[in-house]
Amino acid sequence: MLRNVVIIGSGCAGNTAAIYSARANLKPLVISGHEAGGQLSLTTLVENFPGFPDGINGPDLVENMKKQAQNFGAEYLHGAVIDTDLSTRPFRLKVEDEWIETRTVIIASGASARWLGLPNEQKLIGHGVSSCATCDGFFYREKKIMVIGGGDSAMEEANFLTRFGRQVTLVHRREEFRASKIMLDRARHNPKIKFLTNTVVEDIYDVGHHLVTGVRLRNTRSGETWDEEVDGFFVAIGHIPNTAIFNGQISTDPDGYILSQGGARTNIPGVFHAGDVQDRVYRQAISASGAGCMAAIEAERYLEAEGD
Ligand code: NAP
To answer: Choosing from 12, 60, 97, 132, which is the catalytic residue?
Structure first.
């Protein structure tokens, strides 16, 4: 079956593209991806998405978008795209063992958590190391928690985690913070959050026990190193765009973000981008939704021009 539009990713960008292309009668197929619902599904209260004066929970917001798209006929497929062939038309996308053929593609595959790259970090994921406070905070009631990062994500996670932990230590590699003033102030005024600046993590213990028990820290100015006991270790240092599956077929910048050719266009006619996979500047739910709308409109016009 040849599809009109396949949307890769089911975050704000993908779901909004699905709403628009479904309403244009294009019967889009959305491939949910490894992290169905995208980053919103890993967050708590969203206070800045227009239309919700009291805020709305991220997972509810994204689920509402999905239902809205399904009401207009969008189909959702669980699974992730593992290979692509965008060199000829129709485009081909491999999900599990099946190749899907489509006339247009909207890439809304977002960005995934960045890790510190410490030797023991990956081995302890799920055993005390996490990139998602909303998912895992509950497990650290009355425990000692550490959050790494100096951006809005780190502030948000640290604040959220004070609901559970008896203390949250926020470790940042510099003195200055990338976080917005309001988020930083909120964290600074939270009595449960202790700030450690100019500090980096050198190692995480204890792989032998399959459990996080502590970390080795280093002050970047004095060079001093010391150990601290920690039960929960949350990494909140940004994201990496999910473009590896395109094997160099889509033009990206050196960090892997898709290079836009204007509007929602990529270097391949008929393949469009939407959301964080291209946007390293705004990266908001509302801007991702706006980008999803743009991509769907462009895909619709592209198909129309081809003689739909
Ligand atoms: P970010 O703004 O890129 O900040 C990443 C932070 O991690 C920076 O402080 C960076 O340090 C640090 N970092 C990066 N690599 C590191 C490493 N290897 N070791 C130690 N530290 C490292 O990412 P983000 O906080 O995820 O935010 C992304 C976007 O989402 C931003 O636009 C943000 O405003 C938005 N956001 C908004 C909200 C909200 O409004 N509710 C919540 C979360 C995120 P340096 O500063 O030294 O580079």
So the answer is: 132
